[in-house]
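Our preliminary data section would be incomplete without showing what the modeling component actually yields. Below, a chain of 293 amino acids is followed by its predicted structure, encoded as tokens that our downstream tools consume directly.
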Amino acid sequence: MADGRIIKALSGFYYVQTDDGIYQCKGRGVFRKKKITPLVGDFVTFDIDDNDEGYISEIKPRTTELVRPPIANINQAIIVSSATMPDFSTTLLDRFLVLIESKGIQPIIFITKIDAIDKEGLQEIKTYKREYESIGYTVELLSTKLPTDLERIKHYFSENVSVIAGQSGVGKSSLLNTLNPQLLLKTADISKSLGRGKHTTRHVELVEVGDGLVADTPGFSALDFDEIELEDLPLCFPEMRERIDQCKFRGCMHLKEPKCAVKQAVDAGEISSYRYEHYANFVEEIQSRKPRY
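Predicted structure:
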């Protein structure tokens, strides 16, 4: 019997890292019967046969779990947005933030390619940086010459297990290649005619970056809110979460209710109008999704 962490899942095999090395394992049939799938990031117990083949016998309780990408025990998400190509979008950033917040994972925001925009565009990005920092988020601005920013961002990965999130073409693979040149991950070229990157990453794997582990995954293949209940949505916005107890009505959804502390904060300019607008749109989206049976 041995204990370790699954660092890669590929073609029905799980690669478990221990102090002694990496073992190729299969899951016991009992997991299939119970409809449990071992995930990359899982801490497991496994048996090793005479051929050094392993069979996973136990999956330890998970602290966090993502469905798309399928990964467990992540404590931090680096959300990568770009200032240009593709253009910076607060709507997309807020979608990522809500999904990360709903899983109880710490988000950090990297905005790349800031040297590829004009002075006016840079001022706009800096304004967004200040606004997101005022909510409590950490925001780093990075240039296309990533190695020059390396020392500034390396510490974020130390002793953390991180997932990198962001749409194609924002520079996720370039970022990982800069942090660990041995990875040689394929960089997704932006297809100018389509305005989106080509998918290059196929399987989920934890790779060493600095003194931490990073999930090299295809990213969030879906950005819908299927797993978020309507009443939990306000909790995914920190600036709303901290004002919930100040609303007159318990269970206030901050839309049409009177004496709502969140709406008062929006009117006073303490909560940005675009964040509130996104919240209202997300409420509508959750309300209009098809019922699950």
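Confidence is low (pLDDT under 50) at residues 188-201. The radius of gyration is 21 Å. Preliminary results of this kind motivate Aim 1 of the renewal.
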